Amino acid sequence: MNLRSLTSMFSNDLAIDLGTSNTLVFVKGQGIVLSEPSIVAIDRRSGRVEAVGWEAKKMLGRTPGNIVAIQPLKDGVIADFDITEKMLSYFIQRAHNRRLFVRPRIVISVPSGITQVEKRAVKDSAYRAKASAVFLVEEAMSAAIGAGLPITEPSGNMVVDIGGGTTDIAVISLAGIVYSHTLRVAGNEMDQAIIQYIKSKYNLLIGERTAEDIKVTIGSAYQLEEPRSMEIKGRDLVHGKPKILVISDEEVREAISQPVEAIINAIMVTLERTPPELSADFVDKGFVLTGGGSQLLNLDKRLREETGVPVTVAEDPLTSVVRGTGAMLVDFDLLRKVSID
Each residue of 111-125: b (16+ CB within 10 Å) or e? Predict the structure, then answer.
């Protein structure tokens, strides 16, 4: 199907931010209708889907032997083809109130560094989930549009989208990506770093949900004005018994220092590789942070100090990508310019 026939768009059409941690769905004329974790619970014996999204997330680390909770995307790309297809089918039906025989056209945002094989996997999963046409747009481009950046103007617009599996950094001018970099380090890597830190320092084993909770509650990229701490529960690896301990924001900062520094270094490299004419634009307007990872406390403050340019966090960073992708359901010219093959 070519882009010209997009002019006959129906309200069935969807924009999807298919993320490692969360999937968001935008329906033309309705806005964001769904935001759920990218998790599927499968019965190993029958292969049947037991739960998807929030219901499946509740099962993480708590399932009996025959049920396994799977994240079918890893580092922003499909790791399990069949389960991604089942998850997409579920979300598409949910977005259409479980109406059958709906064959929507879909715009999906994907990481900038995605390979041809990975692009094909995303498209195939969407087609097998009953899409009638599929268009791919780079995540950073969608994030910039969703954050309200003037991407069609001849000036440098820089966006840093920190998701669950990837950090997408792009410099955009005249609706094109001048330079982009995808780093497979983001929110999930911080969670794993917290798990490892607590395991090695306290011999305490915690789950992914607890690690994420710690990061969101007291995690930070720069010293806080008021020290924070939180009580955590896990399993003592020495005695095998449940145990409670208190962890401070300083410890969490130490735990996540490596992934945070990797993101900062990638931003510095982007600033160095940007053409000087566009680089001059950043002196005044700096760059915008989007994605769930951008909500890490004081990350913007740390970046301002390290880069020397203004840093702003998008108004609703979690939904920037899906709102930007959704904008293309009504702007065919823009979709024609920014969609990738």
Answer: bbbbeeebbebbbeb
Closest CA to 104 of 22, 1, 184: 1
pTM over 0.90: no
Please give the structure tokens belonging to residue 72: 């079918």
| Class of domain 187-256 (CATH, top level) | alpha beta
- What values do phi and psi take at 171, rounded to 5? -110, 120
Q: Which CATH number fits domain 151-185+258-317: 3.40.50.360, 2.40.50.140, 3.30.420.40, 3.40.50.2300?
A: 3.30.420.40
Q: At what angle do helices 299-307 and 257-273 cross, to 10 degrees?
A: 40
pLDDT tens by residue, 191-230: 999 999 999 999 999 998 899 999 999 999 999 999 999 9
Superfamily of domain 3-141+321-340: ATPase, nucleotide binding domain (3.30.420.40)
